[in-house]
UniProtKB/TrEMBL annotation:
Name of the protein in its database record: LexA-binding, inner membrane-associated hydrolase
Keywords: Membrane, Transmembrane, Transmembrane helix
Membrane-spanning ranges: 56-84
Origin superkingdom: Archaea
Organism, scientific name: Natronorubrum texcoconense
Amino acid sequence: MMLPTHAVIGLAIAAPLLVLSPDIAPAALTGALVGSLVPDLDLYAGHRRTLHYPTIYTLLALPLALVAVVAPTTGSVGVAFIVVGAAVHCHADRFGGGLELRPWEGTSERAVYDHVRGRWRRPKRWVRYDGAPEDLSLLVTLAVPLLVVLEGPFRAVVAVALVVGAVYAGLRRRLATLAPVVFGYVPERLEGYVPERYRT
């Protein structure tokens, strides 16, 4: 899934706290947003493996959520939602396509690495690839209600996610053709930092 979709999913998970506990809702929204984005910081360093821990994040989320329920402070709620957002991100990646430049071709059986099991989890391809029409549809479906209920910077994040997601979805297949050409000009000393999928 696209990063904008992950961001909006995170905000949607935390949004019920706007009604249930408005005083800690900003901490939950911030935590969920951060957690939903953090796993993809590994895009150029072992993507979907270096910062993707589907089982570990899930196991950590349970006690942290319990602490946040028993002792709801901005810190406990924020940390719990960071880990929940990261866990949901990792599991959502499994419902998408494989780890490849052109996931619509279905040539990769690597969705996300499970460090506990020591193996790659296979993609389910419910969302065929990042930027697919169903990815954009999910983004819009979640973002529109969030634009109504959120305010201030959170509403701005959702609006930016919608614009970026729509542009990316429109260009996704072209970008796959362009990437190997662009990365072909990377200096030789930096080639080791370019993911293999961008070199083929």
